[in-house]
Each structure stands twice: as structure tokens, then as C-alpha cells.
Amino acid sequence: MMNFIKDLLLKIFGKRIISPWLILFIDIILFMLSFVFAFLLRINFAILDVSISSFFIGMIEVTVVYVAIFLIYGIHRGVVRHTNFTELRRLLLSCIFSFIILLLLDFAVCAFCNFIPFVPRFVLILHFMMVVILCFAFRLTVREVYSYLTQNKGNINTVIYGAGDLGLITLEAIRNDKDNQYNIIGFVDDNPTKWNKMLHSLPVFRWSKLLENDAKTKNLDEVILAMPNVSMKRKQDIVEECFRRNWKLKVMPSVVNWVNGISNMGQIRNVRIEDLLGRDEIKLSQKLILEGLENKVIMISGAAGSIGSEIVRQLLRFPIKKLILLDQAESALYDLQQEILLKYYDIPFNLALVDISNYGRVRNVFEEYHPQIIFNAAAYKHVPMMEDNPYEAIRVNVRGTKCLADLSIEYGVEKFIMVSTDKAVNPTNVMGTSKRICEIYVQSLSQIPHIKTAFVTTRFGNVLGSNGSVVPLFKRQIAEGGPVTVTHPDITRYFMTIPEACQLMLEAAFMGKGGEIFVFDMGEPVKIYDLAKKMVQLSGLVEGVDIDIKFTGLRPGEKLFEELLASKENTKPTYNEKIMIGNVAPYDYNYVNSKIKELIDSLENEQDEAIVTRMHNIVPEFIPHNKKYRKFILPPDTIV
After folding, report:
1. Backbone dihedral angles phi then psi of residue 524, each to the nearest 5 degrees
2. How far apart are CA 253 and CA 177, in angstroms?
């Protein structure tokens, strides 16, 4: 019998067959019941002393006003089983408004008609209180009954790490999901004041208690991290403990990262490697960036790439005048266009399908849009590929940057931000040297007197998840069953998330006055082998059992360790501890320009070895690791 009743109620609540008019009808019944009870209290249940006509006229008056206001506010149109505090607040406001109107009617009757009101004010007060309580109770009862009927306890014993607002939202999202697989056994929190308390009928543990594997937690399967402000070190400690105990770890992103701004089970995701290698939240000078960007026409070259597209997303948060998105990759530029139209439809932007090394086409873009700020994120960046194609490295990276920079001066661009790399420091490969040449040229332009354009260079290491970086490669290799390939067991790299890199770039851009090379605090270097092991663990696999990690040897031009500053350079601090300015020697524009012009002019007539030799002449610290080029630069007795 109980199961029959439960199934019937579930059918009613689950398919939302309750008409809004039925809900309004129930509210009307509650209005009338409240009036009856309030009236009886007012006369102390002395029914014989009541005028029946006054009683019914008063009931009709009160009911009509409440019904009218409820209809205006649309209180009856809410899905009762999903009632939240926003709807309860609207219900309260409707009741208050109805009460005020009835009071005004009573005052009007007394003042202008000299009649005794049909409804005493004390009855109105009692009625208001009872309507609020009963309507609240009706909606909350339906919600709780629906929650009880649909609650599906899964077989995955889980704790939610975080007993704050995000933890409660996570619990609600899980409980509201009809396909829920989680059995939530409690919360975990680092705040001692919450320990041993009950939250939504669930205990709040301390982390150390959870690790004791007592009777309540020994069968734990999974931890959901729901702490938006947890430090990176703390997050890493939690991950290591979960790995050690074979607990799965998932993450509930903070509210700003929810897809479509909705809280649901779909937001709970697996831990990504970016969660472990990122750093604590960056605090930016929003005022400085706002003043630099407000009402400006901004052009981003390489806009469809990993860095360029994130710069675009960051810029869209500010009141800019227009974006010019320049790239030669047609499909990627189209994808970026669709993303902007979908998410930022009110931001004006234009696309320019242009190769930055084509001077005439780039000039046309400048002539049409007159950009005021330029972010140059266009470049060929794959080290092994550029080792085999130095022509392309010079054509795109050097000639492309020169085109943009020269036209920036001609068209009076206010600021030119050059995106560079740690591979430009004491370069050992063609790609890094091409970026160093770009740095030198851009810096030399700042030595020209009376130019309007401020040239700023930003230099950082590898960005997690960028096109061609090691993280997407490892993900693909793991998905294909391995092996995961690492070039050397000791190779290390500096890593930064794409949003973090672009945020620091924005601040440095408007911190710089011209001629600076900004170096970002990249944190501690990461061993690529350790990165591979963590990614294997995050995939739920065991190295050597489910998948292998294979060492393939350093590739041509590849460094074992990266540097952020050359040994002869040092830095000076800025007000942001994560951003430093490299003290680098100035370069004479005329000398640099003539050398770079010779390099570019030689592209069509010289072989790769001659091009690389010219690069070494511009950047003497460039010592190739690639034996193919090394013998043309170093004396024979020094070649290993």
C-alpha cells in the first residue's frame, strides 16, 4: 500500500501535472482558512456574536485582494516541487503588498465613508501571518515530499570537501539528480568550528579524522572538492592522499565557472592536471587595466590560437570599443567568432583573415580599423618543427612581428604588447632564437626618439593545455592506451595556466611604459616525468600495469632545463610580486634593423644552415643543440 501511494505521488510530482490553477485554488483555500481562524481568534470563538453577512463580505474582500496580487506576481506559476528562497521571497512580498492594500482600504472606509470596516485590523494582521506560514508550509512540504520520493542513494560512498555555500550547492545538485550514483556520508572542512556538527543531517568531519578510516568512513570511494578558495598546496595535499588511498577525486567548480550559470550534477568534473599545477588566485590591478582598455580599438594577432583566444576572452570583460581578431587559421577563427556571438553578443568585433608576414594585407587592416592597442600573439612555436623549417620561423615570427611593429609606429598605435617565451633566453633552438630576435627588434624600437607607441614584451614559460603542449599530447596518448612518451627522465619545464598567463600579460601591458621585458613568476619547475605520472593517476590507471611511460630522448634543439632570464640579466620588482622587469641591455635600432632586414631578405636565396648562421650573428648567445646547425657555428673541436 505504501509503495502504491509513493508511486502515485511520484507520478504526480515527477511529471508536473499539477496545474498552476490548481495551485492557485489551494492558495485560495488557505486564504479562506486563514481568515476563518483569524476571525475566530479575534472574537474569542464567540460565534453567536458574529454578523454572518459581515463575515462573508470580509472573507470575500480579503480573498479577492490576495488572489489579485498573487496573479499579478505570478506566484501560482512556479514549479512548487522546486521552490527556492527567491520564490519564497516573492511570496512574502505578495503577502505584504496584499496586507498593505487591505489596511489602506480599511482606512479609506473609516475616513471617507464613516463605515465600520468589515475586517478588523487585528484580523488582517493575524490573517497575514497565517497566510505567510501556510503558503510557505504548503510549498516546502511539496518540495520535501518530492525530494524524499525521488531521492536515489547511489552506491558510491562520497564525502563533500567543503561545508560552505558551494558544498551545500553540491549536495543539493546531487540530491536533485534522479540518476544520482552518490551516497553522501558527510562533509569535510578545514574550519574547526564546523567539526562534529550536523549539516543537512550529515556529519562534518575533519580531514585527519577521515584519514583514520573509522567505521563511518572506511568504505569511502570518492571525494568531491567543493572549496573555491582552497590554496594550491592544500589541493595538492588532498590529491596525494586520495591517490594513496585509491579514492577518486572530483571537483565542483566555483560559481563563476559554471556552464550556463546553472548548478547541477553536470558541473561536478574530474580533477584535471591544470588543477594541480596552477597557482593561487591572481590579484590584478583592475583599475589600471580598465583605464588602459576603456573605449579602445584593440587588435589581437594570432587571435584564434590558445593564447590569443584567451586574451580575447579576458578583454571581453572590459568596456572596450571594438576588437579586431586577426589570424590566418580560417576554421579556428570561425570557431572563435561563434563563441563570441554566443556568449558576448553585445561586443563589437571584426575578423581579419590575414597572414601577419604579408605587409600589404596587414597595412589594409591598419588603414581600415586604426587599432589603438595591439597584442601580438601570432607565432610558430613548435620547437622540433621550426628546427626543420627555419625559413618559416623567420618569415612568420620575425617578419610578421616587424610588419606589425613598423605599422604600429606609422599609424600611431598607443601600445604594442609582444608575447614572448622563456625559450628566447639563451636559446638553443631556432624557435627560441626567432622569438629573441623579435624581442630585440621590439625593444630597439623603444630607443627611437619621439615615437608615440610604447613597446612592451611579456615573457613566460609553457602554458597548460595550449595547442601543441605536452598536456594535450599526454591526454591523447593515455586515451589511446599508451605509451606516454617523455623525452628525458630529468627534463623540467615551467608551467602556467592559460588564463593566469593572460591575466598577468594584461597587467604587465598597462604597467609598462615602453622598452620593458616583463618576466612572470612561473613558480617551481615541474619534471615532465612527474607530470606524466600524475596524469596517468588522474586517469585511474597504474603506471607499468595499465599503461607504460616511455623515454624517447631529447629532440633536436630541445633543452633539458628552461630559463626565464639569461645569466647576465637580473630583474627588478614591480608592485605585483608575480611580475618582474628584466634589466636587459638596450639595442641600437639602426644596427638591429639592418641585421634583421638582411636576414629577411636572404630567406629566398639561402639554405637553412646559412639562415641559422645569420640568426646566431644577431643573437650570439644562440648555441644550437641541433648538430645539423651546430657545426656551422662552433669550431670543429668544440662540437660534441
Report:
1. -90, 145
2. 18
